[in-house]
Amino acid sequence: MPQTKPTSQEVIKVANELGRPVSATEADSLAGYLDQLIKWNKKMNLVGPSHWRDVFETLMVDSLYLADFLSGLKLNDAPLSLDLGAGAGLPGIPLRALWHDGSYWLVEVREKRSLFMRSVLGRLKLADTNVFHGKAEDALDRLAESGNAATADLILSKAFMPWPKLLDFVTPMLHPTGVLVILSNDPAPNEDELPEGWTLGDVAAYPAAGKEHYFWSLRKN
Length: 221
Known about the structure:
This protein has 7 helices and 7 strands; from the N terminus they run H-H-H-E-H-E-H-E-H-E-H-E-E-E. By secondary structure, the protein is an alpha/beta fold. It is globular.
C-alpha cells in the first residue's frame, strides 16, 4: 500500500467508517499528526504500521473514543493530566485534537520519542499540551517547580505497566479526587479484585481493528 499523505477529507471519511465522526478542524490536526508520524516512522520505527490508514484504524481510533469517555467523567475544572509512557504520542496527541480540557502532559523517558512529540506539537499548536522528558515518577516534582499542581487530576496509562503495579505507582501522584484511566485489551477487573482503597468507576468498550478494546477508570476511596 503506497505511503500517501493523509488529507483532512480522507481522515473524515475513515473516522465515519469507524463510527466516530470528527469535525473538519479536528481532522486537520489528526491528518497533520498522521503525516508527521509516518515520515518519522521511516527512520525511528515509532509504530508498527507503515501506512497512515493502518495507524488510524489500529492505534489512533483509541483516541477518538477516549475523548468521549473523558468528557463523561467527573473531573476537576481544568484538570492536570499525565499520560504515562506516551511513546509516539498515542493516544495523547490525537486525543488533544478532540478533548481540550486543562493541562495535558505527555510523559516519556525516551529522548527520541520526546523529540518527535515536541516537533509535532510545534506544528499542531494544540491547547496546553506539553512533553515531559524523564521518568514518570519525577514528572510532578519537576512540574511543581514550574508552578503546576503537586498532584494530577487525571492519569492515563496504555500498557505503561501491569495495572496491579500501576495502582501502587500512581498513588502518591494522584489527587484525592483524581481519576486513573486505563486503556486495555482486557475488560475491567471485578471490584473484589481491586486492592483496598480503590473503587472501579466508569467502564466502556469500543471496536478497534476487529476486536473489543476497553477503558476503565479507578478512583481512590
